[in-house]
Amino acid sequence: ARDAEAVRELGAAEVLDHHAPDLGERLRAAAPDGCDVHLDTSGRGVLADAVESLARGGRLVAMVGLGSGPAALPVSRLYTRDASIVGFAISNATTADLAEAARGVVGVLTRTPWRPRIADRLPLSRTAEAHRRLEAGRVRGRLVLTPS
């Protein structure tokens, strides 16, 4: 919610607060035919909800573990939507994969007004502090570590 206006200024057609208790309803209203891709980086994803958000042929991309326990996988909903679930772990990426991703990021940065929000710049000697701040959830944006 704190970043909604900034996200709209960057061109987002819809902005949804992931903390909203009626998020599922809002998502269905914003994308009545479903989403082509549901990207979950939260680690708190619920498979059934994520599958419900998918369009026909959609993909659920899990970038971290989903949920904290056994997750019910709604196989029939995946099947009837021709949908799929894929995992992504950057540690499995090859050097060529990483180079291609870097070119994509450079492309976004050169073709759009989007820029990452820098929350703070810290010398490398304060890396432990940076980790503590990140783990405590007290950072809005990116922390940049500098050599000096």
In short:
The protein is α/β, with parallel strands linked by helices and 148 residues long.
Please provide a written account of the structure.
Helix 3 (47-52) links the parallel strand 1 (35-40) and strand 2. The protein starts with a helix and ends with a strand. The chain contains 6 helices and 5 strands. Among the domains are: 33-92, NAD(P)-binding Rossmann-like Domain (Rossmann fold), CATH 3.40.50.720; 118-148, no CATH class. The strands form 2 sheets. Strands 1-2-3 form a 3-stranded parallel beta sheet. A two-stranded parallel ribbon has the order 4-5. It has 148 residues and is an alpha/beta fold.
Structural class: alpha/beta
Q: So how many helices? A: 6
Alpha-carbon distance between the termini?
A: 35 Å
What is the CATH topology classification name of the domain at 33-92?
Rossmann fold
Main β-sheet: number of strands, strand sense, barrel status? 3 strands, parallel
**Strand content range:** 15-25%
Order of helices and strands: HHEHEHEHEHE
Please count the beta strands (DSSP E, at least 2 residues each). 5
In CATH, the architecture of the domain at 33-92 is 3-Layer(aba) Sandwich
Give the CATH class of the domain at 33-92: Alpha Beta
Mean pLDDT: 86
- CA gyration radius, whole angstroms: 18 Å
List the helices and strands and how they pair.
Elements: H1 4-9, H2 23-30, E1 35-40, H3 47-52, E2 54-62, H4 75-80, E3 84-87, H5 95-111, E4 118-123, H6 127-135, E5 142-146
Observed structural traits:
5 strands, 148 residues, 6 helices, alpha/beta, Rossmann fold
